Amino acid sequence: KEHISQIEAFTAQTKEEVENFRIKYLGKKGILNKYFADFKAVPNEEKKAFGQAVNQLKDAATNKVQQLKEELEGKEEEKGIYGDLTRPGEPVEIGARHPISIVKNQIIEIFSSIGFNVSEGPEMEDDWHNFTALNLPEYHPARDMQDTFFIQTNPDVLLRTHTSSVQVRYMENNKPPIRTISPGRVFRNEAISARSHCIFHQVEGLYVDKNVSFADLKQTLLYFTKQLFGKSKIRLRPSYFPFTEPSAEVDIYWGLETETDYRITKGTGWLEIMGCGMVDPNVLRNCNIDPAEYSGFAFGMGIERIAMLLYQIGDIRMFYENDMRFLEQFKSSI
Ligand code: PHE
Fold first, then answer.
1. Annotated binding site
2. Which residue of 90, 152, 177, 331 has the smallest Cβ count within 10 Å?
3. pTM of the predicted model as reported, rounded to 2 decimal places
4. What integer pLDDT is reported at residue 297 of this predicted model?
5. Residue 35 parent element (H or E)
């Protein structure tokens, strides 16, 4: 018993100490072998108890040696790791943000800085929010402009074809002044090619207040393009959207410097980047905003298109293929 409590109390700092301890108890001339040698001389009736005690002692010593060895090895390993300050660091694999997220965040940042908040809505929409409230009543021919994926007809449930639906929801639930942008995923039943896809991302913007004019729209877009592209040569081409009047398409002059530029701009130097216009009075009325009191502008852009320009990406399908060789190139971007 005395031996056992000594064994339990024993500690060691070096391997040598452990080895000496082992020899003392378990070595050829060690304490245990001495007891085993004494065994023969023990009277028969005490043999059992004696044997049990010696075996207990042997177990205690063996376990202690094992435990001390493990402890010391652990400590040595630690010393190896932390003791050598010249050791090269362990490489930490970092991920990369998706280019769509990077560009989306940049757009949000720019509009936040001039007072726009961010609004979101459902990807699955009803007819009212995606079409009817936006001045696109049933059988309106302009519905064909947007090849819709229907989930259910009558009543219609569909995948939103633009995030203008979010702006309708926002106007229904908020009073002017309204300054909001709606980033999100949209769906159109289009053939997939290098330039278009059936799923893409948009940021649409809406500003409704008293006396909002087309000049405000132009100046806002000029500020935006300057911030995002570092270029501010834009032109507004008259266009048509059912929900804005007048409407325009915004082109940015990209110049023709590289081969990718040629591919993206088709050789003219001008590239269409968004649609915009003054919110049609009918749309305001549909959302319970009085067009006699308020006016507004709206705009919408595809994030893929803009990311393709900024990063000189020639094929929209790359965004959805999750090819690591593509994604890893955005590691250093924020
Ligand atoms: N909703 C239009 C689209 O998806 C874009 C747009 C938004 C145009 C707002 C004008 C005003 O193509």
1. 245
2. 90
3. 0.73
4. 98
5. helix 31-38
